[in-house]
Write a structure and sequence with these properties.
Order of helices and strands: HHEHHEEEEEEHEHHHH
Strand content: 15-25%
Radius of gyration: 21 Å
Strand order of the largest sheet: 5-6-7-1-2-3-4-8
Distance between the termini: 52 Å
Largest sheet: 8 strands, antiparallel
Helix content: 25-40%
């Protein structure tokens, strides 16, 4: 008798299935590809389920979710894979809003969270290169890269079904950060959470530190892998600059320009990561603390 291996059915044990629409935890078909995609989606749900339990409100249901890199087209083009070290994000579409959770390489939630309510979304579109673009009422665009074309198309359809755009006042925050401690909507201008009183990191400290010395800002914000990489790269490039200038003084300006460009790139990467939400001041320099291990 010939036996053929079948993809294992992923377990939903330990999940609060009432938080999720049936389509999230049910395979889209019986093919091997559909089962594989379903297994990956359930594994992602397991990774963020505990954090979502802290964020979702009563009666709020997850309609879809995907993991990718949340960055602008320019940032993704200039920085490539580097931006994935600090901007890897799970985009969760619920019945009320889109919640964006920054995660590490194993999809464990970091501190940074933000939300966009459906009333602030005009439409969503998927691009030829597989990116998902969510257009907002204030003219901004959220772009999720590397999630996969088919997944982005299904995300697009769900968002367009739920979007209910309205005119907003000039002072309204369309993309709103969430407190890492309690999930309460936070302001870009306050120093602490109005819900639990937790103190936030200063908004631009990490970017300024990285601009001054690449790697310091990443370490301050908790991105240890990126911080170590940036420091090693900076020490190597400064060593190369000193060596080349000592032998060829005429190339000092060229090498100095390259070093300045690297400092700007590092500061931009860190600023992009930290502008997406608020971090707790108590977590400074402590690395990527994940929820469930607080």
């Amino acid at each position: 008798m010939l036996f053929t291996s079948q993809p294992r059915t992923p377990s939903v044990d330990g999940l609060d299935i009432d938080r999720y629409d049936a389509s999230v935890l049910t395979p889209a078909g019986s093919s091997r590809r559909a089962r594989r995609e379903h297994a990956a989606r359930v594994a992602l749900v397991h990774a963020v389920d505990e954090r979502l339990g802290d964020v979702l409100r009563a009666g709020e249901v997850v309609q879809h979710l995907a993991v990718g890199t949340l960055a602008s087209e320019l940032e993704f083009l200039m920085l490539g894979g580097l931006v994935d070290l600090t901007a890897r994000t799970v985009m969760v579409i619920t019945s009320n809003r889109i919640v964006m959770l920054q995660v590490d390489r194993r999809n464990r939630p970091r501190h940074t969270m933000a939300q966009v309510r459906h009333e602030y979304i005009t439409r969503a579109a998927s691009t030829r290169d597989g990116a998902l673009r969510v257009h907002l009422v204030n003219g901004e665009t959220l772009t999720l890269h590397k999630a996969g074309r088919e997944l982005n198309r299904s995300m697009r359809d769900v968002i367009n079904t739920l979007a209910c755009p309205r005119t907003v006042d000039g002072g309204e925050a369309v993309v709103c950060p969430l407190c890492p401690s309690c999930g309460t909507a936070a302001s870009d201008t306050t120093d602490s959470c109005r819900g639990c009183g937790a103190a936030f990191m200063p908004r631009h400290t990490a970017g300024a530190l990285s601009l001054l010395c690449p790697g310091l800002g990443e370490l301050y914000a908790g991105y240890r892998a990126m911080g170590v990489f940036a420091i090693v790269a900076t020490v190597g490039m400064w060593g190369l600059w000193i060596s080349r200038v000592a032998h060829e003084p005429t190339k000092m300006n060229v090498m100095l320009g390259l070093m300045a460009a690297w400092h700007v790139v590092s500061g931009t990467i860190t600023w992009n990561a930290t502008r997406a939400g608020r971090r707790l001041q108590s977590s400074a320099w402590r690395g990527p603390r994940v929820f469930g291990t607080r």
